[in-house]
């Protein structure tokens, strides 16, 4: 059986993620990998975390994203993807403090959905998201101006992925759009296109071009020619007004620095290496990877598929390595073999900034009456971002 210790993975020797520096043709942007994670923290920190959490009692609610390292996940009251965790936080009004072990945009969503009496804490404020950072409010406003000049803004509905900043969610809310997750992106796009009864509607999809393209082509039956990519670093996005008028999907040039590393060669190699393997990938992967996979789905879908899989089945998973290792360990006793899709791997370096020392610091500070790492979205941004989130919640 394959366990997390025998995933047959060779970590990359490259350095940490450096946004906007260097070039990596395989992932479309400078993405370097730190190699393996550091060893588990001092065992004394485990006891300190337990003691601080016990002191706080029901005043604290700890959320752990699936991509967090095990030493952090062990203290999570609930685990899940970003939106599930934000909703879980909102469902615990008695918790004075929400400690979000994830990244910045996730904590923002939790702050938007929780009450004013609750305070959201991110144990390391430097835990950001490279994808979310690829679309700034100023850049998106410039793009909308270009759509207006091309005469197509009135026909365009913005749809932003959950993996975006509160500012981008607010922009979407102001302009009649909605938020989506990797689980409901198809329903969100169907809703957006239905806003124009004449069938001439367009979607500006932010900030992950791959999820937008994969959903449009794979799920809605569009062609790749229906999609254009807006590059915020080029004048007018690198597109002519005619190209904007012809397109149905205007995709922001953003991507996940982890999922963007998977390639068609990864899929072909694992099929040769693991006979009878089922390849399952996240829809943030590039289109050719998704097209070559056997199954495609969100992290929750991946977990559910493995839970339902028969003993003896073999799976290659294309998503963040912390989750894949955890699933390999979990399902090995059931006779299910789980391997990572690629031999050369990259952890989500920003997600992994939330380590046990930061969590202990946050919990002990809260137990001592000091709020650290608070995430607070301003009232106007919260209003419009919540409007976009509520439109998503109202999707059929």
Alpha carbon gap, first and last residue: 41 Å
Shape: globular
Helix content: 25-40%
- Main beta sheet strand tally, sense and closure: 5 strands, mixed
The ordered H/E elements are: HEHEHEHEHEHEHEHEHEHEHEHEHEHEH
Report on the architecture of this protein.
By secondary structure, this protein is of the alpha/beta class. The strands form 3 sheets. The chain has a 5-stranded mixed beta sheet with strand order 2-1-3-4-14, with helices on both faces. The chain has a 5-stranded parallel beta sheet with strand order 6-5-7-9-8, sandwiched between helices. Strand 8, helix 9 and strand 9 form a beta-alpha-beta unit. Helix 1 runs parallel beside helix 14, helix 3 runs parallel beside helix 4 and helix 6 packs across helix 15. The longest helix is centred in the last third of the chain and has 15 residues.
Would you kindly provide a brief summary of this structure?
With 396 residues, the chain is α/β, with parallel strands linked by helices. The chain is built from 15 helices and 14 strands.
